[in-house]
Amino acid sequence: MDSSIVLRVKDLVKEYGGTKAVAGVSFEVRAGEIVGLLGPNGAGKTTTINMILGVLEQTSGTIEIPDKAQMNFAAVYSNVPGNLTVRQNLKVFGLLYGVRNLKARIETLLTEFSLEQFANTRAGVLSSGEQTRVALAKAIINEPKLLLLDEPTASLDPSAAHIIRDKVKEIAKQKQAAILWTSHNMHEVEAVCDRVLLFSHGKILLEGDPRTLPAQY
Ligand code: ATP
Asked: Strand pairing of 71-75 and 146-150?
């Protein structure tokens, strides 16, 4: 596989009974690239992400990814455990990923995501925007080569969403992480993504530069 390709999905299918939630999807994501999965409810975006993560088994097709230890994930529906403090959460996930110099890494992340004042607060009492910052800090604790973000800004106000979008762009640029970002919002995809895959009924209907694609079609 071309060394800049971090994720390669080929002819991916997920069938439930006779229905195809994902009906033959192929795409690649390169290091440093942010690729948006855009599409209406039920289009197959989350099912695709879940197969890449390995929590769902595909009916057919192949997924080539780096070592699972070099992958990470954040989603609006998957908050970090609310009964642990922010620092405890980062510690638990850091240990799970075998992060070296974990203490220093946690302090860096607390600063980077402006979470210092919440370090000893239980994550469950934080606002949606604060919890999303914690989830994103957790998601990059192992400096992933592939980062899967399922609607990371869905519950955020415009200003908090803006902070998260900037942060993710910075992660792609500075760390050369490959990022897959699902969204319902074309404006957001335009602002964040280098490329967009437009999902409809389990298939990729269109693919291209989010800044020029709407005018083309
Ligand atoms: P949303 O934007 O609403 O999150 P999505 O694009 O992520 O939608 P998926 O959650 O991937 O869509 O769902 C794709 C289709 O697969 C939907 O029609 C859904 O009802 C169906 N589906 C998902 N999981 C199952 C399941 N366990 N059993 C049967 N059908 C399922």
From this structure: parallel
Tens-level pLDDT at each residue, the chain (217 residues): 677 899 999 999 999 998 999 999 999 999 999 999 999 999 999 999 999 999 999 999 999 997 778 999 998 778 889 999 999 999 999 999 999 999 999 999 999 999 999 999 999 999 988 999 999 999 999 999 999 999 988 888 888 889 889 989 999 999 899 999 999 888 899 999 999 999 999 999 999 999 988 777 7
**Strand residue runs (E) in the chain:** 5-16, 19-30, 34-38, 60-64, 71-75, 146-150, 178-183, 195-200, 203-208
| Residue 84 alpha carbon to ligand 1 centre in Å | 31
Q: Residue 53 is which amino acid?
A: L
From the CA of 184, how far away is ligand 1's center (Å)? Answer: 14
Ligand 1 pocket (Cβ < 6 Å) reads 16, 21, 39, 41-47
Under a CB-based contact definition with an 8 Å cutoff, are residues 174 and 109 in contact?
no
Distance, in Å, from the CA atom of 84 to the CA atom of 68, rounded to the nearest integer, reads 25
Question: Which atom of ligand 1 sits closest to the CA of residue 37?
Answer: 6
Alpha helices in 69-209, H assignment, sequence order: 86-96, 102-112, 128-139, 158-175, 186-192
199 CA distance to ligand 1 middle (Å): 12
Among candidates 134, 143, 187, 150, which has minimal Cα distance to 31? 143
